[in-house]
User: What shape does this take?
Amino acid sequence: VSKALLAEYATSRKKNQPIKVLGLEHMNSPRPVIPEILTSAILRSSQFQ
Assistant: This one.
């Protein structure tokens, strides 16, 4: 992990603000729930791409 990405993540967490730069916007959303049985349809869904 680059120092710039880690610093941006730490700063946004400290300030309790969403991440808006460096392509880290996906980290603002909640973690996906991974089902116990992974079917091919689940693996092809946009959530896991």
About this structure: The two ends are 21 Å apart (CA to CA). The mean pLDDT is 81. The longest helix spans residues 3-15. The chain has one domain: 3-48.
